[in-house]
UniProtKB/TrEMBL annotation:
SMART domains: D-ser_dehydrat
Species this chain originates from: Amycolatopsis minnesotensis
Span of the signal peptide: none
Similarity field: Belongs to the DSD1 family.
Annotated protein name in UniProt: DSD1 family PLP-dependent enzyme
Domain D-serine dehydratase-like: 265-370
Pfam families for the chain: Ala_racemase_N, D-ser_dehydrat
Lineage top rank: taxon: Bacteria
Entry annotated with the keyword Lyase: yes
Keyword NADP: no
Keyword entries, A-Z: Lyase
Length: 386
């Protein structure tokens, strides 16, 4: 395992050693989650371009691709640069391109990295054309298509879709189309997720067809979100799937039925620092600076507060939830308002996050365990910045 310590070093680092709060990653669960989606996508006959915005870690990326650099998706140019330094040469920057950032894109292209950008306007396409002409090199670009009104992208009927394709094709920069079913994160249950996956595929394929009917070449048809990647049953016409949260999973995904709570690979270790029996509270040193303010389960059938509480071995403590957070304090209480368990000052606990991406972003790296052990096997740094 990348970053693994020697046996003697590992045994010297139990979970009681590092100062809390800290991010803990169970690499056995990471491997299992990776294998699950890899098998599914392989059965559907398409390639996987994992989105590394959740993990932001070279070591996690190595697990996804079997130790060798492969195609990846990133959410910042800082990620793209760090993964390029790590040997990755096929990278999709899946956030609408800011023309001001094109010099950094060109710098990566000159290094031999095929860095594709994303856009959904003629203004961005013209900026790409001008930068490509000035640099004397194409800038691969995907046109974002909106399949569910979630965020960005052209609708299929948008009059500028084909025009944007022509602008890019004119400078040899049209790489394909990209669709993200963002509303799938609110699709409760397999039936709704399959419907979202089918809509995502249908819109992506239709957009590619519309550009091809206009005489334009479309190589890449990219779709993906963690819910739709696990629910899709037919990806005919699609060339690749993107997903990122699946590597760690979180309580939002568990609440939607995409995974089980026992699949969550990321947790935050905190320490009990106070008791407020008159309020039914336990206080910890893990506030929103450790967990984030994400309350993604609030609209689900089961509200998990700021996170679900487990013991240090990872077993959920019945009815105990992180119900409140200030900057450096976490509040634990029971769902039914009864007295919480008597946990002495200094007791260490783990909190399972609502949103793995947001919680991981609060930490500089991960302490790593394997197969539920309490010995820390390594420390994996995260990539930060934009």
């Amino acid at each position: 395992m990348t970053g693994t310590k020697s046996g003697a070093e590992a045994q010297a680092d139990p979970l009681a050693a590092p100062d809390t709060p800290f991010a803990l990653l169970d690499v056995a669960k990471v491997r299992r989650n990776i294998a699950r989606l890899a098998e599914r996508v392989g059965d559907l006959g398409v390639s996987l371009r994992p989105h590394l915005k959740t993990a932001k870690s070279l070591e996690v990326a190595a697990l996804v691709h079997g130790g060798e650099p492969g195609p990846i998706t990133v959410s910042t140019l800082a990620e793209a640069e760090a993964f390029a330094d790590g040997g990755y040469t096929d990278i999709l920057y899946a956030v609408g391109i800011d023309p001001h950032k094109l010099p950094r894109v060109l710098a990566l292209l000159r290094r031999g990295v095929r860095l594709s950008v994303l856009l959904d306007s003629t203004a961005q396409a013209r900026a790409v054309r001008e930068a490509a002409a000035s640099a004397g090199t194409p800038i691969p670009a995907l046109i974002e298509i909106d399949c569910d009104g979630h965020r960005g992208g052209f609708t299929l009927e948008h009059p500028s879709l084909v025009e944007t394709g022509r602008i890019l094709a004119g400078c040899d920069s049209l790489a394909g189309v990209l669709v993200h079913a963002g509303e799938s994160y609110f699709a409760d249950g397999l039936a709704e997720q399959r419907e979202a996956a089918a809509r995502e595929r249908d819109v992506a394929v239709a957009a590619a067809r519309k550009l091809r009917d206009a005489g334009l070449e479309v190589g890449t048809v990219s779709v993906g979100s963690t819910p739709t990647a696990h629910a899709a049953t037919d990806l005919t016409g699609v060339t690749e799937v993107r997903a990122g949260n699946y590597v760690f999973f979180d309580l939002v995904m568990a609440g939607l039925g995409v995974c089980d709570v026992h699949d969550l690979a990321l947790s935050i270790v905190v320490t009990v620092i106070g008791h407020r029996p008159e309020r039914g509270w336990l206080l910890t040193d893990g506030g929103w600076m450790a967990m984030s303010r994400d309350r993604g389960t609030a609209g689900q059938r089961v509200d998990q507060g700021y996170g679900l509480v487990t013991d240090l071995a990872g077993a959920p403590i019945p009815e105990l939830v992180m119900t409140g957070a200030s900057q450096e304090h976490g509040v634990l209480s029971t769902r039914d308002g009864t007295a919480p368990p008597e946990l002495p000052i200094g007791t260490r606990l783990r909190i399972l996050p609502n949103h793995a991406c947001a919680t991981a972003a609060q930490h500089a790296g991960y302490h790593v365990i394997d197969a539920g052990e309490t010995a820390i096997r390594g420390y994996w740094k995260r990539i930060s910045g934009w």
